[in-house]
Design goal:
Helix content: 40-55%
CATH class of the largest domain: Alpha Beta
Amino acid sequence: MSDTTRAGEAQDEPDLLRDQFRQLIRYRALIVAGVLVGLFGGAWLALTGADTYTSTSEVRLRAATVDPFAVGASADKGIDIGSERQTALSTSVADAAAKIAKAPSETMAHCLQVTNPPNTLVLRFTCSTGSAADSAAWVNAFTKAYLADRQAQTKATINTMIDGYKAQLDPLNKQRNDLLKQIDNTTDQQVISSLTSQQTNLLSRILELNGNISGLRALDSTPGSVIKTGAVPKAPSGPGLPMMLGLGGGVGIALGLLGAWVRLVFDPAVRSEGEVTRTLGAPVLGTLPSGRRRRGSGPAPLLAEGQSGGRLAEEYRAVGFRLAHDKRFAERRRLLVVAPRGSSDTAAAVAVNLSASFAEMGMEVLLIEADLRTPSLSARLRTADGGGRPGWARSPGLGEGGWPAGLQVSIDAGESGSFDLVPGRRVRNVARALTSAPATRLFSEADTPGAAVVVLAPAVLAYADALALADRVDGVVVVCDPREVHRADLVRVRELVTAAGGAVLGVVLHSEEGAGRRRRFGLRRRRTGTGRGDSGHSAPPGTRPPEEGRTGQAHSPAAPERHPVP
């Protein structure tokens, strides 16, 4: 059996991811609930949200220039596009636009957005309102107010510069006039020559200032041009119902997966075979199919045989063959079948059917019921003689409380043959009875060539009986329902078995019918007075429990006669 290979594959990262994804999608209710919540939220926002209409206009800016067609003229000369964007969003522009549109300035200011496409001198004005007509009117008002404000600022700058030039020009004109008077009133040629030179310099300066003033007056102060006028939108600008449903569905899936992940993280139960393998450190030998029984048809027998067993019987045979080819089991042929906690009814069925499978392979099988607290196998199995009263075999000696008392019943396994059963009985000191010398001689029956011993014990975490047997039996098969057992339980079972000197050979998984429903509604099955656990199985017709205190042996057709052991 490739236990190491199975464990290595389980630790592979892709396998872990696939296993976790499969575990997530098991919480379909949470995922579906998340999707429904997302769809409902998207539909609610799409249907109840106010419609928003958006209109856009664009303005291309230009700098003031005398000749825009002159060589070297640049449209972006002196334009800071960031500052112009802030100007467009200023309160003064909003107030001017409110006067044009005859609307509240605060409301209009909240609707405006100004952006600048990269590497352009274009400002894009966007206005979103609850009215299509208002959005177009307001964005055009903002465009007009901004251009008017920019032109007013340009003209104000020109006038300021002209006034400054005039302030410089007036003293020069006065000084020139004084020089002309002095020239007219003097006859000295040297003085006239000096005054004429000063007059020439003043005249040159005056001409320069007049040229600057003429240039400023000739500037084209147009701030820019509207390249796109805001039009009345024909449809709302917000996402429609299909888009909102799509977004809601996506968000819902994310919420559902998040909820499933949180549920998975805080769920202590085991949810997959890979998780069982990783937690217990042993491979899954098989998974028993969950059988459906009609109400009133009676409890199913422990032994799944022939055609009546169907798929269940074949699964038991597969588990038996895997164990028979396990090197660790083949060396000593001792097997302890036990459940982690709760009822051992399914573990009893596994022990019985594994015994039948080994008998089918030609082994001489001895099934020991080490459940000395609620023994029930002898009352639920059919003896080989068919009379319902067991035969009697050799006595290995009386142990604590009379167990084992020498009672060895031959069990009819149908087409598989037969095997011997050492039934349990109630004793006062269970631990002493399980570790007694007669019990040890029973377990040593597997030392005979071609023989195998299968031991059934109570749940590991309920009583320490299985731990007292682990060092004598060595190989342990754990039987559990992955929906009912917790990861901490499996870890505890592995630690206890290993500390007791045994080794977990594998796990047999099963799924009880209606277990999830009982757990959901907090219901528990009523226990019968027979002390047989939760299953409520009764003894087949024609059989009765063996009497305590009697010894003897019934000979199976497939097993040789046993001789007493002193």
